[in-house]
Amino acid sequence: MVFNSLLFLVFFTLVSGAQYLPLSWTGRKLVLTLFSYLFYAAWYPPTIVILWASTCLDWIVTRAMVRTESRSKRRSLLLASLAFNLGVLGYFKYSGFVLDNLSPALAALGLHVPAGLIPHVLPVGISFYTFMSLAYVIDVYRGDTKPVGSLIDFALYLTFYPHLVAGPIVRSQDFLPQLETPRRATTADFGWGLLLLLFGLFQKVVVADALLAPIADRVFSGGASGNVVESWAGALAFSGQIFCDFAGYSTCAVGAAACLGFRLPENFRRPYAALGFTDFWRRWHITLSSWLRDYLYISLGGNRAGKARTLFNLMVTMLLGGLWHGAAWNFVIWGGLHGLFLCAERELKPLLTRLPAAWLAAMRPLGVAITFVCVTFAWVFFRARTFHEAIGVVRGMIGLGRHGSTGALLHPLQVATAVVGVGTMLLIHQRYRDSSLRQALERKPSWVVAAAVACLIFVTVTTAGEDRAFIYFQF
Amino acid sequence: MPSSTSSSELVVDRPARSFLGAVCVGLILGVAALAAYEVFWRRVGLRSELQDTAELWATKRMAADDAGPAALAIVGSSRFQVGIDPEALAAELPGAVPLQLAISGSPGLPILRDLAEDPHFLGTVLCEVTPTSTFTPLRITMKGRPVEWADYARTRPAVAAWEGQLRGFAQSHLVILSSGLNTVELIERLAKKRGFPTPPYATFRSDRFRDADYSKVDTKAMLQHWTSGFAKGVNPPSAKDEAALYSAIGNWVRQIERRGGTVIFVRMISSYSVLELEERNLPNVRYWRRFLEQAHVRGIHFSEIPGIEALRCPEGSHLSGDGARLFSRALGRELVARGWLTRTR
C-alpha cells in the first residue's frame, strides 16, 4: 500500500479512528501493530514471516544480552543477530547480483547456478527495518540503550507503518520512549499531520511524478541520443524527481505518524542548498547517513587513525552506502563518486580555510553550485538502469551525444520545465536553508495556510495519473 | 561523513499553533473547487471514463491464467484493441473467454513471449500482425510499455486489484480524473495552443475494448496523419534479424502448444493509402507469407475472411465500433470453419 493510493485513504481513516478505541494503552499498541502488519502484507503477504523472524530473534537476543555478564556470550549473541539479519538481507537483495557476477567464473569451472537458488521477490522495506533492528541490537550490546521488555513494543518500533517500508530509519532511543506513556493525536497533532501528508503527496504526485519523471524517463531511455541541453535537462529533472519522491515519502511518513500522536525524525533538510558534500549528507537521507556514520564509519575507526585510514574509511562507507541502495554496479559507482567527493573536500578544506573570510563569503554561491552539479552528475549513475545507459547520458552531458537543436528527444517546453522547476526548488532550498517547513508555516496567517491546502488538494487530485511506486521502495 | 547531527535532535517538533482549523477550511475550499471544475468540464461536453492502466491490464492478464484452456488472449496494438470486440468474438466462440490484452501503441510480441514463458497460461492466443511493427528487429520491439506492464502483472502488490477497483469506480464517475484533464498535460496542451481537450471518439470499456465512433471526427485528417507517418518509410529487418525474429516467434508458439494451447496470427485490416503504403514498404507476399512458412505458424490475412469484403477502416488504420463487431464475428466464424478453434472450447 502506498501513501498515494485510494486504499491508503481507507486504511488511514481506519487506523486513525482505531486510536480512539476504548482499549488500554497495551491494547491500542497491539491494534496499531496489527494495522502495521496489514499495511506491510499489502505488498506480498509471505514476506511478513521474515519481518516476524527478525523481530523475534532480535528481541530474544537483546533480552539474553542483558541477562549475561559474559563478554564472549554477549559478543556471540551480537554475531548471531548480525549473521541472521545481514544473511537474510544478503540473500534476498544481493545473491542475484553476486551470482550474476560470479556465473562466468563458475561456468568456466563447469558449475551452474540452479535458477531456484536466486530469490524472485525482494521483501519491501527489508533494508530499512534490518538497519533499524541492527542499530537496536548494537546499541544494547554497547550499553547505549536498555532492551525493551515488551515484544509488542519492539514489534511496533520495527513495524510502525509510517516508516516501515521506506524510512526514516528511526533509532530506538527516539521511538521506544514514546511507547511508555499512552498517546493519542491531539487536534494540533492531527492538523499538523494532515498538512504534512498533503504536502508530501503534492511533492510526490505533482512535482516528482507528473512534472519531472517523464522528462528523466525520456532522456535516460534515449541514452546518447540527447544533445547537451537535453541530457542536462534529464539529469536535472531526475535530481528534482528523486528529491521530491523520497522527501515526499518522508514528509508523508512524519505526517502519518503525527496523526497518531507520534514523532519521527526529519530525513531531509533542504539538501540542494548544501555547501560541500559533508553538508549534503547532513541534509540528504539524514537517518541513513547518520546510521552509516555511527555504525559503520566510526566502527571502522572514523577519523581517529590517520589521514590515509580516514579517507579509506570514507570510501568504504560510501561504497557500502551505495550498495545499500541496490544490488548493481551503478549504485556502487554512485557511492564511490560521493566517497571521492568527500575525500576531495577533506583534502581541499585546509587550503580553503587559509583564504580571507571575504573571499570565502564571495565564493559561497559557487560552492553551493559546484556541490549541486556534482551531486546531479552522480545521480546519473543512480538513475540509469545499466552502466551503458549511464555512459550514454554522460556522453550527452559533455557534448559527445547527438549534435543539433533541442526537440528530437525533449520538447523545448520539457527542457524549460526541468530548468524552471528544479531552479525554483534550488531557490526554495536556499531561502529556507536553515529553517523548516514548520517554522515557515508558523509565520503564515491561517488564511494563507488554508488557501495553500486548497491549492495542494486541487492540483494533486487533478494531476494524479498512473501510479508510480516510490523510488526508495525498491531498496 | 556528517559529524554534528545526533539522531534525537532530528525528531520533528510539533508546531507552536494548531493548523487543524486552517486545514479543514482548506479541505472544504479544495473540494468545492474540484466540484466546480467537474461541473465546468461536464458543461464543455467531456464525460467520465475508465482509464486504460497497467492495473486494469494486469487484471485481464491474470484472468488469462485463471481461465485455463478456455482463455483466448487478444494480443496486439491499438488496431486489435479497437478492432476486436471480446463480446462479439465470444458470441461466435461460446465456451471461450476472450481477454483483451492489446496495448495501444505497442506491438504484441512482448506479450506473446510473456504468455509463452508463463506455465500457468494454457489457452489460445490471437496475435495481431501489423507489418510495420511486427517485421522489425526484436531489440526494437521487445521493450517499452508491454514489457513494463507484463512485469507489473507479475510483481504487483497483493492489494493492487482492490486499488484498481477503487480507482476504476472514481474514474467512471468523475470527469476531472480523465487523462486529458491531467493538470500538467492540460497546461502543456494549452501552451502548445492545441485548445481544450475534446470528448474522445472511442469509448473505453471495462473489458478494455475501445468502441470507436468516427461520426464526429475528421477522418480525412486522421487518414492524412497515418499516411504521412507510413510514408516516411521503414527500415526492413536484415536477413539475420528476420531469421532471429521468426525463430523466436516459432519458439514461443511451440512453448504454448506444448501446454495444449494454440497461437493464431491475424494480419489486421487496414485500408486506403495506409494499406497501399504497408504493401509498398513490407509487401504481403514477401513478409507475411514468409513469416508463416519460416516460423511454422498459423495465420489468417484479413482478405481471407469471408463477409468483410466491404469493410474499411474509416481513417485507414483502425475500425469503427460497428466495424469491429462485424470483423470479430467474421473472424470467429472463420477460425471455427478452418477448424483452428471450436465452439465448445
Quick tags:
heterodimer; A: 475 residues; mainly alpha; B: 345 residues; alpha/beta; five-stranded parallel sheet; two-stranded antiparallel ribbon; 15 helices; 7 strands; disordered N terminus
Structure summary:
Chain A is mainly α and 475 residues long. Chain A has 19 helices and no strands.
Describe the structure.
- The complex is a heterodimer of chains A (475) and B (345).
- Chain A is 70% helix and 0% strand.
- Chain A has helices spanning 6-18, 25-41, 48-67, 71-108, 126-142, 151-159, 161-164, 172-175, 187-222, 228-258, 277-283, 286-297, 307-325, 329-353, 357-383, 387-397, 412-431, 437-442, 446-463.
- In chain A, helix 9 (187-222) packs antiparallel against helix 10 (228-258) and helix 15 (357-383) packs across helix 16.
- In chain B, helix 4 packs parallel to helix 15 (321-337) and helix 11 runs parallel beside helix 13 (272-281).
- Chain B has helices at residues 20-44, 54-66, 78-83, 86-92, 109-116, 131-134, 138-141, 145-155, 160-173, 183-191, 219-231, 239-258, 272-281, 288-295, 321-337, and strands at 71-75, 97-100, 124-129, 202-204, 210-212, 262-267, 298-301.
- With 345 residues, chain B is of the alpha/beta class.
- The interface between A and B is large, with 72 and 55 residues.
Distance between the termini of chain A: 16 Å
Total number of beta strands of chain A: 0
Major β-sheet annotation of chain B: 5 strands, parallel
What's the Cα radius of gyration of chain A?
A: 23 Å
**Number of discrete helical segments of chain B:** 15
SS elements, strand count of chain B: 7
Average predicted local confidence, pLDDT of chain A: 89
The SS-based structural class of chain A is mainly alpha
* Main sheet properties of chain A: none
Measured as a percent range, the helix fraction of chain B is: 40-55%
| Low-pLDDT segments, ≥5 res of chain B | 1-8
Gross geometry of chain B: globular
What oligomeric state is this? heterodimer
